[in-house]
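Continuing the series of single-chain predictions for the mutant panel. This is the parent chain; the variants come on the following pages.
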Amino acid sequence: MITPISIDIMSLNISSIIPMSIAIFGALMILCIDLFRKHNNKHFYVVLTTLFLLVDLVAVLSYPGGNRGFFNVMYVDGISLLAQAMIVIFSGLFIYLSLTKERFHEYRYPEYFALFLFMTAGFQFMATSDNLILIFVGLETASMSLYTMIAMHNRDKATEAAIKYFTMGAVAAGFYTFGAMILYYVTGSVSFGEISAYLASTNFDHYPIILLGIVFLIGAIGFKLSLVPFHTWAPDVYEGSSAAMAGYIAIVPKIAILVVALRFFGIFIQANDPLVEGILYMMAVVTMTIPNLIALVQTDVKRMLAFSSISHAGFVLVAIMLGTTQAIQSLFLYWILFAFVVLGAFAMLWIHRTKEAPSFYGFSSDYQFDKFTGLVKIAPVSAFIIAILMFALAGVPPFSVFWGKMYLLSATINSGEIFLAVVMVINSAIAAFYYLKLIVYMFLKTRDDKLVVEYKDTVNTIVLKVIIGISVVLSISAIFWIDVLMQVISRAVRLSGY
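Parent structure:
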């Protein structure tokens, strides 16, 4: 006689999957609406997407349940709730960049907005699990949606970028599965908590095999965080994507993978594994330095920002490697401050992009540095806004990113890593050069060919102005609200047991 399986519904903690279920339901609703009512205005889908993201955010902020849920594959702690809130808020802000006056190709399709919600749900699953299988499901759900959305931009470079991203992403997925398989073979589990307990109880027996699995997973995580030497996809993908999508890629996917990296690497950092700590140390130094040097010689602003975002990923890797409470708090503070500035920077690039080919004005790309020459005379408000955002990215006081770097430097010095702190300061100085380079083009250079670029008000809508205004105001006024933000982050980190 077969004994029936009894499942206690209360023990499943269904509330742990409600936030991402709302995003998935919203995506399915958009697809169903399109079946029965064709040719809806994109404004309708933007509002609908925002509505579901808002409900998603409310579900995250009002989460009542315990840490575990849904057959123990969900792990909802303070950090996961903070990460989910960041993912949903920044997704909501970036989706509004689609409200342009010009009819760009991708926004004609309701599928774009459905994929956006599927992608958001995938990132939420990654941030709310310590199970290697569910993390992989969330990772691939988000990645497949992202590849498709990049290709929908319908330019040659966009198609090329999507293919490169897909190909490299497939390699990273292979690395991830091999690493997960090896760890499962050794420990008999795919849960971070059980893997950690097994390794501690066996004193890291079969360490060479374990290290092989770790190396594979470092490759997968390094790809998603665009860490050197797994960063090669980033500049081409940023350049091929629309400016709005490039800004999104720079921020939101990395929030989810940062949580995964924090939990996975934390197993070995807490065990004082010298090899893993050495690998992360080396990757952090190289990731901060090499992209910074490459960014110095870029002639395209978007590619420069791509290399810049890689370097910033190196800064937060330092916090993961340190593993202290102060370092983890600094990680989230740094990324939130950085995210708001990047939102404004890519929004400004977005409003200076037109549907005409770059060659229409004689440029080799949409965002060539020379395109911004003398911008202060043509569009002074835009020039001053971009200048403020570049100062903020450079970490010039009192702008927002400066405070993130100060907190992170303080955590690094307090951990006794003086060499790392020196490397961070040197790289901050190097970065200031290429950020200020754009300001020089806008304010101090004039055109020899007398070409006047027309910046038509075709993309600049009220919503975009509000988003840019939020970014600029928060970048300037960080000193007044950073303590409140730090209190929220500290509470979330403490709830997670750090």
